Amino acid sequence: MKNNKIQDDSISILGLGNGGHAFAAYAKSQGYKVKIWNRSRAVLESIKENKGITSSGLLEGHYDVDFISSSIHKVIKQSRLIMVVTTANAHKDVAARITPYLDGNQIVVLNPGRTGGAIEVRNSIRNNNGPFKPHVVEAQSLLFVSRCSKPGQVTISGIKRRVPISAFPSCENEEVVPFLKDLNGAFWETESVLNTSFDNIGAIFHPTPLLLNIARCEDPKVNYRHYIDGVSPSVASFLEKMDKERVAVADAFGVQAITLQKWLNSVYGSSGGSLCETIHNTKEYQNVMAPSTLNVRYIFEDIPTGLIPLSSFGEVAEVPTPFIDAIINLANCMFNKDYRSLGRTVESLELDKIPFYLLKEYMTLGDEFYIEIKKQESVLEE
Question: Does 302 qualify as catalytic in the annotation?
Answer without folding.
Answer: yes
